[in-house]
Design a protein that fits this description.
This protein has 164 residues and is α/β, with parallel strands linked by helices. 24% of the residues lie in helices and 24% in strands. Strand 3 and strand 4 form a beta hairpin. The chain is globular.
Length: 164
């Protein structure tokens, strides 16, 4: 297993999710095991249905794991570190993280239509499409083509954080 992790950041509707899906699909066609972490900064995601046993268990304040024939779902009442997440996933080739700006991972900032300078200091590369004037990208910053998955995969292979 390669165990390479990388993060993606950027404003809402910049194309982060689409890029992560495209990268995951490309890696899956090469038979790599891909794991994805999605940051939910405002705790909006809801996975349990009201009245179901798993929801009742979660409301006790206990950490809950739901195991079915095709998936395992964990409900934990605290956040997890990147090391916790890596350990939870076990063996994988690529871990793609959407968001989590404070996690120390190599990071690609995604921009469409406008650049947002607040992401520059937390990013190691910038991926844009043709809607961005490339002359506005800071000098010396690595620039990637948002629509070139192979180019971005090459950057990940070279710069992604490796876990043992």
């Amino acid at each position: 297993m390669k165990k390479i992790a990388v993060a993606f950041t950027g404003p809402s509707n910049s194309g982060k999710t689409t890029l992560i899906i495209n990268i995951a699909n490309a890696l899956k066609t090469q038979n790599y095991k891909v794991c994805i972490v999605k940051h939910d900064p405002q705790d909006k995601a809801k996975f349990d249905k009201e009245g179901k046993d798993s929801d009742k268990f979660t409301k006790t304040g206990s950490d809950v794991v739901v195991v079915s024939p095709n998936r395992t779902t964990m409900f934990k009442h605290e956040t997890s570190s990147m090391d916790d997440i890596v350990e939870l996933f076990g063996d994988f080739d690529y871990l793609l993280v959407e968001g989590l700006k404070t996690v120390p991972l190599p990071r690609v900032a995604i921009f469409r239509n406008a650049l947002d300078e607040k992401y520059f200091d937390v990013s190691d590369a910038i991926a844009t499409d043709e809607s961005i004037d490339k002359s506005k990208i800071p000098y010396g910053c690595i620039h990637l083509d948002l629509n070139n998955v192979d180019e971005i995969l090459g950057w990940i292979e070279q710069n992604g954080k490796r876990f043992s």
